[in-house]
Amino acid sequence: MNAPTSDTTMSVNPEEMARYNKLSETWWDPTGPMWPLHRLNNLRVPFVVNAVTQHFGLQTSDTALRGLTILDIGCGAGLLSEAMARSGATVTGVDPAQRNIEIAASHAAAEGLTIEYIHGSIDSVVDRQFDVVLNMEVVEHVENLQAFMASCGTCVASGGMQIVATLNRNFKSWLFAIIGAEYVLRWLPKGTHQWRKFVTPRETRSMLTDAGLITLKLAGVAVNPITRSYSLTDDTSVNYMIVAARDR
What we know:
35% of the residues lie in helices and 23% in strands. The chain is of the alpha/beta class. The protein has one domain: Rossmann fold (3-Layer(aba) Sandwich). An eight-stranded mixed beta sheet has the order 3-2-1-4-5-8-6-7. Strand 1, helix 3 (79-86) and strand 2 (90-95) form a beta-alpha-beta unit. Helix 2 runs parallel beside helix 3 (79-86).
């Protein structure tokens, strides 16, 4: 759901980028076109906070992530970035859709949050390192995935971690994520996803390993079409999240 990352080696379709710029005005409306992301955010925020606190041995609190630096790749208009900032982290959000960044910066300022927002791609921060790299709902939009994941890996500091959330590639994911979500239920605009860009957990783990990261946890994400709520599951056949870390 987050906007795709793009640069000279990881280009995205101009029509796709235009779609995200157009949708930017609706990011913060929980009842608008971005409602699935708001519902998903209710699940992924505690998942991320729990994974990070466990990895770094932090105490659970409202500001449990204080002192940590977090990079949110494909941050959109800042839904996840703001949640991380409210948890005490120093957050940098990067997105190639300029209007997304404008909306994100404006909303953060109105909320009294200090978040560094950058209009650009992973290349904009590839010379920096962070305690946590959030790569959420992005990889299924990237053209040159190997290069993108390698760059994300370089941004993970020693002892740091990366969390990836994306879509598996199989018949079930095509049926549920594209036919079901885009054409039948119409939860997402048609063309939001391209099945060929979906990535299997095995492929994601392999790229994380190539980047020097060790997979710590794999969790599936399920959605109830009646209640429109998201939950964690052992079933990774459609949506899944992977937590990986770098040794110190």
